[in-house]
Amino acid sequence: MYLEHFGLDDFPFSLSPDTTYFCNLGAWQEALNVVLVALDGGEGFIKVTGEVGTGKTMLCRTLLNRLEDRYTTAWVPNPYVSANGLRLSLADELGLKLPGNAGQHRVLRELTAALLQARQAERPVVLVLDEAQSMPEDTLEALRLLTNLETERAKLLQVVMFGQPELDARLSANRWRQLRQRITFSYTLGHLDCREVRSYVGHRLAVAGSGGGELFSGGAMDALCTSSAGLPRLVNILAHKALLAAYGEGRDSVGWQHVLRAARDTDEALQPGRSRRSWWAASVVATLVVIAAGIAHWHGLGMTA
User: Fold this and answer.
1) SS3 (DSSP) at 179
2) Per-residue DSSP letter, 135
3) Residue 105: HSE in the Cβ half-sphere, 13 Å Cα cutoff
4) Chain centroid offset of residue 91 CA
5) Mean pLDDT over the full length of the chain
6) Same structural domain for residues 183 and 200?
7) 184 and 59 share a domain?
8) Does some domain include residue 243?
9) I need a surface site. Which of 83, 116, 125, 172 has the fewest CB within 10 A?
10) Which residue range(s) make up the domain with 247?
11) What pLDDT, on the 0 to 100 scale, is given for residue 281?
């Protein structure tokens, strides 16, 4: 496609969570630091939430890579399983060979032995859950009970949950107050600001082999920031489409018009120059102008602003 044309070695805006593209921007690096410090301190329960597309899975994968030298990690990317299914998933990640019909008592006994062995070997177990908001009620309760496993001095199992904001809504229910109290560290991932979008795009281009030239013009960057509303996944989608548009025209760089074309082709995107808030504000201002000035032909503009 456009790799050779733009002098790239790899597609810089793939949606796959390739950790070589992890960008240590403020929010992501801060979230990673919070989790690492909490785990090093022996904390049992940590939660990271964010909207779809804010980079949770990338952060999750990066965390797993950072932990592998000092911890025994167990990753459950889809915790939409039964209570015993969660226990069996953890057992499987720890290398325990248990039949699918193994009873709760046996699973817990062997899990406890494996967790204790890992702790004694100074490689404590960290269970990392992605998409935690999808956990059934019984499974969430089973997770809480698993964190009861401990010695006199330390937790046998530490848990890091990544989830969408629905996870916070679920945990706010009174029945989960005990679980809530165990969550000692929480972090919420937000959208990128325009400065961060520029850094993010530049970083991914550099990793993909860009020679450092201005592949995206200043206007293209501004349009990309607005159209994506600072949502990393949407930045990737729009940047990829804009590169395709520029390549199709034989251009050496991406201009604002290519981002505009990409935004028009993407349902979730905002049109360049307008944010969700500015769409509403512009409508209000235009209506006030109509009333104050009484100029009839502005009425349609006010209604569509």
Assistant:
1) helix
2) -
3) 0
4) 26
5) 88
6) no
7) yes
8) yes
9) 172
10) 194-264
11) 45
